[in-house]
Amino acid sequence: MAKMSPANWVPAAILCSPLHRLRGRQVQASAEASRDPDVVAEALTALVLDHPPYGRWAHIHTGPDRTPDPADVRAEVARGRVLIRVQLPPGDGTTR
Questions:
Q1: How many of the other CB atoms lie within 10 Å of CB of 83?
Q2: Where in the sequence is the domain holding 20, given as residue range(s)?
Q3: Contact at 8 Å (CB) between 37 and 87?
């Protein structure tokens, strides 16, 4: 598996169409949901580290060093949070 990057994640519940808007452009993409607790916890931790305000929305507190609270991360995973990984086709995926 490729190294995960927050740039490839979309915090969304459902992606039901192959065409989506990304940065103001319509793109074709495929989406894959993961419920694996370890994968979801790793992704959630990385998202909060990369974008601390996301932690407030996701109910994850951070310590003085901005590290996400592992107990909060585990609680969110237990509540059913999933990871949606969006894969763009080779190139930029832009449709015209």
A1: 21
A2: 6-87
A3: no
Cβ atoms of 44 and 59 within 8 Å: the answer is no
| Six-digit token string for 7 | 């740039």
AA identity, residue 93: G
Q: Are 28 and 93 in contact (CB under 8 A)?
A: yes
Q: Tens of pLDDT along 6-47?
A: 544 444 433 445 555 667 777 777 888 899 999 999 999 999
pTM higher than the cut 0.70: no
Domain count for the chain: 1
Residue 93 lies in a domain: no
Answer yes or no: is 95 within a domain.
no
Exposure of 69 by Cβ count < 10 A (0-12 exposed, 13-18 middle, 19+ buried)? middle
Q: Which of 46, 24, 34, 38 is nearest to 83 (CA)?
A: 34
Q: Is residue 44 part of a domain?
A: yes
- In a domain, residue 94? The reply is no
